[in-house]
Amino acid sequence: MAVKRIVANLAANDPQASRSFYETLFGLDVVMDHGWIVTFASTAIMKPQLSVASEGGSGTMVPQISIEVDDVDNVYELANAGGHEIVYEITDEPWGVRRFYVRDPSGAIINVLQHK
């Protein structure tokens, strides 16, 4: 048996409100839209991963999802310019990542990170 994919499902009263957020900040494409559910995807090839945590590291809350990017400072600037709530300021963590938390339009906390 092999896990082929893991999909994060975030509850949202208005899934369409998330379109601009995920398209603009992360360059994700809409690959499915049934109105009640919108699925975004990247063309990157990734290994399925699932994290289970008691905290988010550095004493932060556990984010709903983590998105690794190739330029976290650029995404941070886009998030600020877009007026999105930064929940945890951009930080160089002792375990070798630079990251910040941003709240998406549905209220989910997104851990945006880049490995150093």
Report on the structure:
It is a single chain. The protein is of the alpha+beta class and 116 residues long. The chain has one domain (15-46, 59-115): 2,3-Dihydroxybiphenyl 1,2-Dioxygenase, domain 1. It contains two helices and six strands, in the order αβββαβββ. It has helices at 19-26, 72-81, and strands spanning 29-33, 38-41, 65-68, 86-92, 97-103, 109-115. The strands form two sheets. Strands 3-6-5-4 form a four-stranded mixed sheet, covered by helices on one side. A hairpin with a 4-residue loop joins strand 4 (86-92) and strand 5. The radius of gyration is 14 Å and the shape is globular. The relative contact order is 0.21.
Structural class determined from secondary elements: alpha+beta
Computed over alpha carbons, the radius of gyration is: 14 Å
Strand order, main sheet: write it out. Answer: 3-6-5-4
What is the mean pLDDT?
96
The CATH C-level class name: Alpha Beta
Question: What name does the CATH topology carry?
Answer: 2,3-Dihydroxybiphenyl 1,2-Dioxygenase, domain 1
Beta-strand content bin: 25-35%
Per DSSP, the total helix count is 2
Query: How far do the termini sit from each other?
Result: 34 Å
Known CATH architecture: Roll
Question: How many distinct domains?
Answer: 1
Q: How many extended strands?
A: 6
For CATH, the homologous superfamily is named as 2,3-Dihydroxybiphenyl 1,2-Dioxygenase, domain 1
Shape: globular
Secondary-structure element order, N to C: HEEEHEEE
Major sheet characteristics: 4 strands, mixed
Low-confidence stretches: none
Task: Provide the helix percentage.
Answer: 10-25%
